[in-house]
Design goal:
The complex is a heterotrimer of chains A (about 280), B (about 290) and C (about 350).
Chain A: H1 3-34, H2 38-41, H3 54-60, H4 70-100, H5 107-119, H6 122-136, H7 142-166, H8 170-179, H9 183-194, H10 196-212, H11 215-220, H12 229-235, H13 244-264, H14 266-277
Helix pairs in contact in A: 1-13, 3-13, 4-7, 4-10, 5-7, 7-10, 7-14, 8-9, 10-14
Chain B: H1 18-48, H2 52-60, H3 62-93, H4 98-107, H5 109-112, H6 115-125, H7 132-141, H8 152-180, H9 184-193, H10 197-225, H11 229-235, H12 246-255, H13 259-284
Helix pairs in contact in B: 2-13, 3-8, 3-10, 6-11, 8-10, 8-11, 10-13, 12-13
Chain C: E1 4-13, E2 16-26, E3 31-35, H1 42-50, E4 57-62, E5 65-66, E6 77-80, H2 92-102, H3 107-120, H4 136-149, E7 154-158, H5 166-183, E8 186-191, H6 194-200, E9 203-208, E10 211-216, H7 218-223, H8 228-233, E11 240-247, E12 250-253, E13 256-259, E14 272-277, E15 282-285, E16 289-298, E17 302-309, E18 312-319, E19 329-334, E20 340-343
Parallel strand pairs in C: 3-8, 3-9, 6-7, 7-8
Antiparallel strand pairs in C: 1-2, 1-4, 4-5, 9-10, 11-12, 11-14, 12-13, 14-20, 15-19, 16-17, 16-19, 17-18
Helix pairs in contact in C: 2-3, 2-4, 3-4
The chains are: A mainly alpha (about 280), B mainly alpha (about 290), C alpha+beta (about 350).
């Protein structure tokens, strides 16, 4: 290799390696704790002397006070995430179809309402949402979290789906109408099959949003059996001598599904979401 | 391609066609959600914030003032650092070398992975007694590292760093997409004309990306305003409530059962948020 | 197969009126072409017939039955779109069978009709392919197949050949015409290409700015255009037209006397007129009206000459070759009865 090429590679490595370290360090640290036994976890070493999977065993066996409801909470996270994903898909797809293909009157207004909601930071909606759920009598009911997350996820999903829908030639709808399709038939047999990649991106987005959520879960749910795993993790903080290594092990378990989903659907996610987020 | 719209009757008197009926029916689910879970809570929240007394109390609270300053610093510093780094890294990541692509795949992890465990992981790294950072400092220099999260300035800075860690990948990706949209021929023509790397950036890359960079910065401001986790999970707002930002302040008041103050603090933030929101809506609504 | 009737059709888009009262009838089994420049309203008219646009005024009837309030699917018509509009996620077979599937037709009928259409259009081997795997011409045929399967009363074509290259266009033109001869279904065909209109139509409806300029058989329109617009629109290269004034039985224009057709009776002395003569109706001769040659374009079997008299350009098309060169002076002769005279203000034929 010529000197110029080596220099070019070196320059890139000079950026690449720090980026890699910066990105991985907190995650590496989490793994470090998760595989360290209790006594050596806090020793400050860069690599445990006796790496062990024992912590995971403890977590799975719910062998600690904080982990009493681990499986239940893990299940709650799954259940809520999937419900949010499914419900958001339903709400967003029907709305996008009505706005983009059926050109419903006031569609533009609905789109703007959705955009407006999307841009208001969710943290600012949290307190009013909490009080309102109280009024509705939904506090401590998992539906409050599901519906709240659907509310937060829908706007962006509607927007992404509408952008994607607009790319479908309108003549397809006209041809289907001429062929005799009713609105529902058009939706089911022509529209949905053609929107599958966007639907996957949007459904996954909503699902992950719900899975990763802390604040709303923390506010709206209180009983240990009902909370999600994210809240359970936060509960570890309430004492000073909590078993941090167990926390990190649980955290790692909690972090795996999103990472896995993200990597399997990376194709859809990146194109689907960045295209939606940015108007080029 | 024929782009004519379905011209549906607009007279109110005429009965709805099947298509119009379904159009309206299909926006109902979202509208229901909107009315029940956005409109009403917002209205209720504003109603809770109606007492002028709340605002007086708010202004008298030093914690509020501190939070406002923190938020401002957070926004200005964190976002600009983040966007500038994203801009630079976007140039790195357009590279098609195999190992760059690998790094890109890993680079996305902070965004993909939930923030609770990662923030907590950082929190433990910073533990003054047994955290890995201070242990390393002690091992290499024999000195005791600072009590990171007990110093308000350090704590806030670390929250900002955490926020940047989490959100950098997303913005970098956006900017990478923008870079990829620039036709390669422009750079080739510039090379032939004898442009340096910096000149190529200033004359080709930056003009193309300027608008998106601005939009991204504004959007990032809105999202950073709402970043509850980075502060709450790292510092809890401490030490002594000195690292609160607007996002966490509302919750603090809520826990102290001062709901009216919580709402007031949000309302006070609105004049700053709403212009940003309208700006973004103008940019993106079609 | 059925007759179609347009009665005083009007169309507004908001405050803008785009169709100003169009009436004409189409006979059962006729192949009628709506032709005109972009924006003349031909596609809008077709779409109103299809039920894809509202009818602002007037009535459209199929077989004597007013269809204004009927939905597209109840009008018993089928349409072939400009961009084919094939369902990308369905195979050719599924595309063609879609309308039957919506009506819950049984497998046997579907099989029969799709098979029949596929045979007529030579699509048998392509039935299990997806649209993205087909060429433009093949996609066009699938779109037609989809229409045939419906067995409708009327076929509608909306500029179906615009997306094809020239050679393919010529081939498809013949195919569509052959299809019509075979199925004898009433067809309404929209195009902006007057050559398509001339070669395919039983009758042509020339439209311009939302009104009908003239309706007639291709040759009638060619030989006797009723106004200036039709005269210049039909025929390629287009008719030579220039202004002049009537002087007894000639038109005084471009410094020369141009003989008028003998059957022009309503011309008055000194009347300002447009004189028109088709490029193919002018001949080179040893004497006549002088013109300068600007460009000579031999196309093999014919030669096209661009001539100039003063400031006016003229086109001449002749069979065979010529020795004429640019900058030569040539003399023009023509049969007076092949000329066309239009009043300068009304632009109507005299």
């Amino acid at each position: 290799m010529s000197f110029k090429k080596v220099a070019a590679e070196a320059k890139l490595l000079l950026i690449g390696i720090p980026v890699l370290i910066w990105t991985l360090f907190p995650i590496y640290h989490m793994v470090l704790f998760a595989i360290s036994p209790r006594d050596t976890a806090t020793s400050g070493h860069l690599w445990p002397e006796h790496p062990t999977l024992q912590n995971f065993e403890i977590v799975f066996k719910r062998d600690h006070f904080y982990l009493d409801h681990f499986w239940q909470q893990l299940g709650n996270s799954f259940l809520i995430a999937i419900s949010v994903g499914a419900l958001t898909l339903f709400v967003a797809t029907t709305a996008a179809f009505a706005i983009s293909r059926l050109k419903v009157r006031g569609g533009r207004t609905v789109m703007n309402l959705a955009l407006f909601t999307y841009f208001i930071p969710a943290a600012f909606l949290a307190v009013p949402m909490y009080k309102t759920m109280g009024l509705y009598g939904l506090l401590n009911n998992q539906w409050s979290l599901i519906l709240a997350m659907v509310t937060i996820a829908s706007p962006y999903c509607i927007w992404v789906l509408k952008q994607a829908s607009d790319k479908l030639p309108y003549e397809l709808d006209e041809a289907a109408r001429m062929d005799g399709a009713t609105p529902l038939q058009l939706f089911w047999m022509v529209y949905l099959p053609l929107m599958v990649p966007s639907l996957v991106a949007v459904g996954t987005y909503a699902l992950l949003l719900a899975w990763n959520e802390y604040l709303y879960a923390f506010l709206l749910l209180s009983k240990d059996q009902d909370v999600t795993l994210s809240v359970a993790l936060g509960n570890f903080l309430s004492a000073d001598d909590s078993p941090w290594e167990l926390l990190m092990a649980t955290g790692l378990i909690y972090a795996l599904p999103p990472a896995a989903i993200y990597y399997s659907f990376k194709r859809y996610m990146v194109s689907g979401l960045t295209a939606g987020a940015v108007k080029s | 391609m024929n782009a004519q719209t379905l011209n549906l009757p607009t007279t109110a008197a005429a009965p709805l066609t099947n298509w119009q009926w379904w159009g309206r029916a299909m926006v109902v689910p979202y509208l229901l959600i909107f009315v029940i879970f956005v409109l009403y809570p917002v209205g209720y929240g504003l109603w809770l914030a109606r007492h002028p007394q709340s605002y007086v109390e708010l202004m008298k609270d030093p914690i509020f003032f501190r939070s406002a300053v923190n938020t401002f610093v957070f926004l200005v510093v964190a976002i600009n650092i983040k966007m500038v780094v994203a801009l630079g890294l976007s140039g790195f990541f357009v590279n098609t070398r195999w190992w760059v692509k690998w790094i890109a795949a890993i680079f996305i992890l902070p965004w993909a992975v939930p923030s609770i465990p990662t923030i907590l992981s950082v929190r433990f790294m910073l533990n003054p007694e047994w955290g890995i950072i201070n242990s390393a400092i002690f091992r290499w220099t024999g000195l005791d590292g600072p009590n990171w999260l007990n110093d308000p300035t350090l704590a806030l800075s670390l929250s900002m760093l955490m926020h940047v860690w989490k959100s950098l990948p997303f913005w970098t990706l956006i900017l990478v997409a923008a870079r990829l949209a620039i036709p390669a021929e422009q750079y080739e023509a510039a090379s032939v004309d004898g442009a340096t790397t910096w000149q190529k950036f200033t004359f080709i890359t930056w003009p193309s990306m300027r608008s998106l960079y601005l939009t991204s910065t504004i959007l990032s401001m809105i999202w950073t305003l709402g970043d509850f986790n980075s502060v709450y999970l790292l510092t809890g707002g401490g030490p002594a409530d000195m690292t609160h930002v607007l996002a966490t302040l509302g919750i603090r008041y809520l826990r102290l059962d001062q709901v009216d103050l919580a709402m007031a603090s949000i309302v006070v933030a609105l004049p700053f948020i709403l212009p940003l929101v309208f700006f973004m809506m103008k940019r993106l609504s079609k | 197969m059925a007759s179609v009737s347009f009665h005083n059709i009007q169309k507004n888009f908001g405050a803008v009126k785009v169709i100003h009262g169009i009436s004409f009838d189409i006979q059962d089994g006729e192949f009628v072409v709506l032709v005109g420049p972009s924006g003349c309203g031909k596609s809008t008219l077709l779409r109103m017939l299809a039920g894809l646009e509202d009818i602002s005024g007037g009535e459209i009837s199929i077989d004597g039955r007013v269809i204004n309030e009927l939905e597209s699917k109840d009008r018993d018509i089928a349409m072939v779109f400009q961009s084919y509009a094939l369902y990308p996620h369905m195979t050719v077979r599924e595309n063609m069978a879609f309308s039957l599937r919506l009506r819950k037709a049984d497998a046997h009928t579907t099989e029969e009709r799709v098979g029949n259409a596929a045979r007529i259009l030579n699509l048998d081997k392509l039935l299990d392919r997806f649209p993205r795997e087909l060429s433009g011409g093949q996609r066009q045929r699938v779109a037609m197949g989809r229409a045939i399967v419906r067995d409708p009363k009327v076929f509608l074509f909306d500029e179906p050949l615009s997306n094809l290259d020239a050679k393919l266009r010529v081939a498809m033109r013949a195919e569509i015409k052959a299809l019509h001869q075979r199925l004898k279904t009433t067809t309404v065909y929209v195009t902006h290409d007057q050559i398509e209109a001339m070669t395919m139509a039983d009758r042509i409806v020339v439209m311009h700015d939302g009104i009908v300029e003239q309706i007639g058989t291709p040759l009638a329109l060619f030989d006797k255009p009723s106004n200036l617009f039709v005269a210049q629109f039909i025929g390629s290269p287009s008719m030579n037209v220039f202004k002049g004034s009537v002087q007894s039985n000639t038109v005084n224009a471009l410094g020369a006397q141009w003989a008028m057709p003998t059957n022009v009776t309503s011309a008055t002395q000194g009347q300002q007129v447009y004189f028109g003569i088709r490029p193919s109706d002018i001949n080179l001769a040893s004497s006549g009206i002088a013109a300068k040659v600007v460009v000579v374009e031999p196309t093999g079997a014919e030669t096209e000459l661009l001539l100039q008299i003063g400031e006016q350009s003229l086109t001449l098309v002749m069979h065979g070759r010529t020795d004429v060169k640019p900058d030569d002076t040539v003399y023009l002769q023509f049969d007076a009865n092949k000329a066309h005279v239009f009043d300068a203000s009304s632009e109507q034929r005299l």
